[in-house]
Amino acid sequence: MLRLEGLTKTYKTGDQALTDIDLEVPKGQVLALIGPSGAGKSTMIRCINRLVEPTAGKVLLDGVDIAHLSAGALRRARREMGMIFQEYALVERLTVMENVLSGRLGYVGFWRSFTRRYPQADVDEAFRLLDRVGLLHMADKRADELSGGQRQRVGICRALIQNPKLLLVDEPTASLDPKTSRQIMRLICELCAERGLAAIINIHDVALAQMFVARVVGLRFGEIAFDGAPDGLTPDVLTQIYGEEDWEATIEKVEDEDDIEAAE
């Protein structure tokens, strides 16, 4: 599915954001990417779809090296990589439906997108997705009328209507309250399971990552410091990734949340 080989990013300032990253993400796997600020998490996601240009290495999606595609080939390849942003990246003056359909811009011609005349099959799929995330009744509302959680759900629909093979998710819960954060993480994981999608979720909340994913990768100074199951995030490992802290409290929080999940 996705394989990174020696992925490296060095900025013009000389700052080393990523160093020789080797990583495989099989079809259907949801992976949480954790680490302190500046560890290279967002850079890694953006190097995969080349919003940031890698300095070296390969980004192989089903064997195709994204890192070395021409501009036209890259546009086509990006159809297969849905992106969900922390800041939602919606067009505020457009409706929910129009924002979702914007995910089809890579497939329809310029004039169809300019006049917003999308194929009926795309419109039908947009309605199905909005129904799935509980926003069907808001299809005609403007994006600036929505709450943070609702905006993120629209962003999820916009990514999924591309019919991608891979989801790249950058801090999907950073601006949300704890309850909404859990709902969004649960929704992303359920949708990936339903569609057999692989996903990389960049997330700061370690406890939230441990609650919902089967695999966690920890970055520190642009290198992989941990790659394994959530229960492998012991206090010693978390200290290795983030530095000294009372990590027992974080582990206890996860255990408490698991009890709540079981009771719901």
Descriptive notes:
The strands form two sheets. A six-stranded mixed beta sheet has the order 6-7-8-3-9-10, with helices on both faces. It has a four-stranded antiparallel beta sheet with strand order 2-1-4-5. It is 39% helix and 22% strand. Helix 6 (148-160) packs parallel to helix 7 (178-195) and helix 8 packs across helix 10 (247-263). The chain has 264 residues and is α/β, with parallel strands linked by helices. The protein starts with a strand and ends with a helix. Strand 4 and strand 5 form a beta hairpin. The longest helix is centred in the last third of the chain and has 18 residues, at 178-195. It has a domain at 1-80 and 199-264: P-loop containing nucleotide triphosphate hydrolases (Rossmann fold, 3-Layer(aba) Sandwich), CATH 3.40.50.300. The radius of gyration is 19 Å and the shape is globular. It is built from ten helices and ten strands. It has helices at 41-48, 71-78, 96-101, 110-114, 120-132, 148-160, 178-195, 206-212, 235-242, 247-263; strands at residues 2-10, 16-25, 30-34, 56-61, 64-65, 81-84, 166-170, 198-202, 215-220, 223-228. Keywords: ATP-binding, Cell membrane, Membrane, Nucleotide-binding, Translocase, Transport. Pfam families: ABC_tran.
